[in-house]
Amino acid sequence: MVKIAFFDTKDYDKELFDEYNKNYGYDITYFDSKLNKETAELTKGYDVVCIFVNDKADEETLKILEENGVKVVALRCAGFNNVDVDHKGNLKVVRVPQYSPYAVAEHTIALLLNINRKIYKSYQRVKKYNFSLDGLLGFDVHGKTIGVIGTGRIGKAFIEIMKGFGTNIIAYDLFKDEKAAEEMGFKYVELDELLAQSDIISLHCPLTKETENIINKDSIDKMKKGVIILNTSRGKLVDTDSLIDELSTGKIGGVGLDVYEDEEEFFFRDMSNSYKRDKNLSMLISMPNVIITAHQSFFTKEALNNIASDTCENIKQVMNGEKCKNEIL
Ligand code: NAI
């Protein structure tokens, strides 16, 4: 029987994987802790290690897994910036490249509308029977220019919805999909042009050496005053110090974040009773024109079901020695 060590387990993971596992019969041990070089010792005797976005599969950790006899690392997410892809060895690494681009795209739009129309403010006001409109002024999204960085699955799902708002879409991607651009009605431009022309900029590229801090002091300088920045991809795409500086000057009009560069120690858990705080995160949370959600873009029933079923299937294929299209190593 295939033995799986499942890290960073939440109740909803266990519920769904137990359900899907009825068709596979894996022997799954659920650990609360995240995978890293300290917890890697727990993997002795397991065939498969199943991890999520904030587990760390760096070189040191992967070496320990191999020494422990682990054959497969199964990511139950799309992004794999937490895996050392230069690792040389026999370990196979698989991921779930697509589980619901709509979930992330729709959440990005929820952040945009919430920031622009100040829904978070009006919700709290109305709860207190305050029906004043002071400070709630937004703008029509219709007619605005939207800059999309990364036009893969999620970027395209986002563009499709934004077209319905009557917006003008420009995009930047290292690998252009000109056919999609023509069919969907958007235009590829150079990054600097996107930065200069966009009223709203949304990040949908992976975190790589090239994209780390793609939003920084220099790139913000090139943007329009009052620009709204949305990041539902990975926290490290944005240099948080510059973001805070430029929010303070009013250069940036609003920010919607579902990810944060140092989210590992905070996100996916209740820290409300802890004294542990992160300076920049606290600063962002305190700002009136920033809305942060806790890496929940993916969190829909459809996405969770797809994650569980595809992860189980990936593991089956690799353990059977079959070719798996979702292998990254
Ligand atoms: P994808 O692989 O379909 O698309 C990524 C696009 O980014 C590709 O078109 C690629 O060519 C482009 N790209 C790569 N390097 C680039 C660069 N240097 N500059 C500009 N574009 C570049 O990936 P998908 O499914 O659209 O996901 C995008 C990202 O969203 C993931 O990498 C992940 O980090 C994030 N994500 C976040 C979730 C959340 O819950 N917040 C859930 C799922 C994904």
Distance between the termini: 23 Å
Q: Please state the structural category.
A: alpha/beta
Largest sheet, described in full? 7 strands, parallel
Q: What CATH architecture label of the largest domain applies?
A: 3-Layer(aba) Sandwich
SSE run: EHEEHEEHHEHEHEHEHEHEHEH
How many structural domains can be distinguished in the coordinates? 2
User: How would you state the average pLDDT, rounded?
Assistant: 98
CATH topology of the largest domain: Rossmann fold
Spell out which ligands are present.
Answer: 1,4-dihydronicotinamide adenine dinucleotide
Short description:
By secondary structure, the protein is of the alpha/beta class.
Would you write up a description of this structure?
The model has no long low-confidence stretch (mean pLDDT 98). This protein has a seven-stranded parallel sheet with strand order 8-7-6-9-10-11-12, with helices on both faces. The chain has a five-stranded parallel sheet with strand order 2-1-3-4-5, with helices on one face. Helix 1 crosses helix 11 and helix 3 crosses helix 5 (153-163). The protein is 34% helix and 15% strand. The protein contains eleven helices and twelve strands. With 329 residues, it is of the alpha/beta class. It is globular. The protein has two domains: 3-99 and 301-319, Rossmann fold; 101-292, Rossmann fold (3-Layer(aba) Sandwich). The chain has helices spanning 11-20, 59-67, 101-117, 119-127, 153-163, 178-184, 191-197, 217-221, 240-249, 279-286, 301-319; strands at residues 3-6, 27-30, 48-51, 72-75, 92-94, 145-149, 168-172, 187-188, 200-203, 227-231, 252-257, 290-292.
